[in-house]
Design brief:
- The chain has helices at residues 2-32, 34-41, 53-71, 76-99, 112-125, 143-151.
- The chain is mainly α.
Length: 155
Amino acid sequence: MQMAFYIFIFFATFWFMEFMAWFTHKYVMHGLLWILHKDHHQHEPGFFEKNDAFFLIFAIPSWLFTMFGMMNGNDFRLFIGLGILAYGIVYFLVHDVLIHRRFKWFDNIKSPYFRALRKAHKIHHKHLGKEHGEVFGMLIVPKKYHQEALKTQKP
């Protein structure tokens, strides 16, 4: 029964991170910490961006929860840390690899979901300033982009 609880904690944390990513993106990255996020919208030369610092901002709580969970007999904190880690891995693969193509690993993905996700993110990036924008989440895509992707899907 305890393992079922830990699995629930893991998945609940993973999906909570989608809300955290949306909230942080909308109110922190496009707010107080725009100075770090700006180069993600207004590209500057080089492979790395100041925006990459957000990796550490999210990695530190993951590491701390994992460490303290392991130090206390693999309690619930471990599964919170692993949920954050799993979201971070998915975020990296979706955002940096699939959407922004910083690594050319997935060249032939034809999934309507991923096409909808890329379109929603492209709409977000059409705004170069911090004040405007839409579609701040990562994995949950507004319905209209799903419908668009399905309409343009080749049989």
